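Researcher: I'd like a candidate sequence for this fold, 379 residues long. If you have to choose between options at a position, lean toward the conservative one.
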């Protein structure tokens, strides 16, 4: 069975006023009718119903938002809708969701002055700079407040004006009938962008935005011990907001350049040093160039390949707290690849004295060469 919604009441006709009647005319019409149909004055039962309609009409027409709904063809007092809106009898699902979850109802104009966005800048530094800190100049391209209009966005001697399309509310409302009943939806005014005001004469410098882009130079203080990928925050050095709003923050992201000698792991430094086989066997003293200068390092006799020596307190200073990391020296023992006859003789004598027999590889071939010849039938 088909149900039909009731027709929206003509509240203007109830009070006997024109649709463009002023607020004072509506009030005078209400008082005049109330004196005629008030139950204390008129005992007729029909007068009581008439008085209810008069009160309802005044409640609606004295409220600008409810009156706007009436002007759009709706009934703000109807529980399930009183008439089709300008969009026809059917509306989209998104319009219904907007009405129920956020865009319906008055939200007020959107301010022209809003906070600015944060900005980020990459800064490349050497290991020496990240280890001990540095004051580095940086160049930033950001939006700053327009000096011509001081962020107002208007030309000299002019001001913003109320938007005629939305009456300064920053939004426009529409009434539509859905399967859920009457839905009143509000959307930002397209004429003013939801601000409720327009700029008739924009600033010639910024075009009404209240800000311009410029390049400026700052000095950022890098603390000792920062690591690759860390960010340093410079408060209120980011983008100035629209309408000259407060600026956001500037974040300086640290990128540490690779070092020719050292690799870094947290606050510790690592390097590799090659020492001759004889030096590893007999022991020696190395001169290591650290971040602070040269440092003597003793290599004990009998040091094995892959050994790691540690120099305490010669790494990177701790970012938080006192002290520094350590320097780790990884030793690569180098075996000689070419020996002359005398050197080879001495080395064999050394091996013989230690009871370490070394098989000699002759030009004719050794054991594996003889095995190959035996398989080939030349034995």
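Model: Candidate sequence:
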């Amino acid at each position: 069975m088909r149900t039909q919604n009731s027709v929206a009441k003509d509240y203007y006709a109830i009070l006997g006023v024109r649709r463009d009647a002023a607020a004072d005319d509506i009030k005078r019409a209400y008082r005049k009718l109330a004196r005629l149909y008030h139950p204390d004055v008129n005992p007729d039962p029909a007068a009581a119903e008439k008085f209810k309609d008069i009160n309802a009409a005044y409640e609606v027409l004295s409220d600008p938002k409810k009156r706007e709904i009436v002007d759009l063809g709706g009934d703000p007092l109807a529980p399930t809708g009183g008439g089709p809106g300008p969009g026809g009898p059917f509306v989209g699902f998104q319009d219904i969701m907007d009405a129920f979850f956020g865009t319906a109802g008055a939200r007020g104009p959107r301010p022209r002055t809003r906070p600015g966005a944060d900005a980020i800048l990459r800064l490349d530094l050497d290991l020496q700079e990240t280890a001990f800190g540095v004051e580095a100049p940086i160049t930033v391209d950001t939006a700053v407040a327009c000096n011509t209009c001081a962020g107002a966005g208007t030309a000299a001697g002019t001001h913003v004006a109320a938007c005629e399309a939305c009456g300064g509310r920053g939004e426009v409302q529409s009434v539509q009938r859905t399967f859920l009943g009457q839905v009143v939806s509000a959307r930002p005014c397209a004429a003013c962008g939801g601000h409720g005001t327009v700029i008739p004469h924009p600033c010639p410098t910024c075009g009404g935005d209240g800000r311009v882009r410029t390049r400026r130079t700052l000095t950022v203080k890098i603390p000792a011990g920062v690591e690759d990928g860390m960010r340093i925050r410079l408060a209120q050095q980011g983008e100035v907001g629209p309408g000259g709003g407060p600026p956001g923050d500037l974040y300086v992201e640290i990128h540490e350049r690779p070092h020719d000698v050292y690799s870094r792991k947290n606050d510790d430094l690592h390097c590799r040093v090659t020492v001759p086989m004889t030096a590893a066997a007999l022991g020696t003293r190395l001169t290591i160039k650290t971040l602070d200068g040269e440092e003597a390092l003793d290599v004990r006799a009998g040091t094995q390949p892959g050994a790691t020596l540690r120099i305490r307190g010669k790494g990177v200073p701790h970012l938080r707290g006192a002290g520094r990391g350590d320097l780790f020296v990884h030793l690569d023992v180098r075996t000689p690849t070419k020996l002359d006859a005398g050197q080879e003789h001495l080395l064999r004598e050394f091996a013989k004295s230690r009871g370490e027999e070394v098989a000699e590889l002759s030009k004719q071939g050794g054991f594996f060469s003889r095995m190959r010849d035996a398989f080939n039938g030349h034995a």
